[in-house]
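Issue 218. Parser rejects a valid record. Input:
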Amino acid sequence: MFHLAQILLLTTNPLQDTNSLLAFRTIETQLIYHARQICGIAQSRPDGSCRVNSVQPLYYAGCCFNRDDERKATVKLLEDIENELGWASIYRARDLEAIWS
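Output the parser choked on:
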């Protein structure tokens, strides 16, 4: 949840100076860092209750990715949650695929 909060703050903070290219690159780097942390935690296969609560963080992490391998890994994590735990999460994977196309 910490990394999700960081992503939300970085994408919605109106006080950030987004006019400079350096500020944009710094924000982009931080977004990717936190998105990768979310996916890394999900890949470590924590307890089922943690995995169920990672659907939204995984969705927002997926929104930050530009590379195909990271996108595919995010979709796989969401699909695994539904297939292994029975918790509806594939709809979020489909939402991400619609955003990416």
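Fixed in the parser; the record now loads. Residues 62 and 92 are 10 Å apart (CA to CA).
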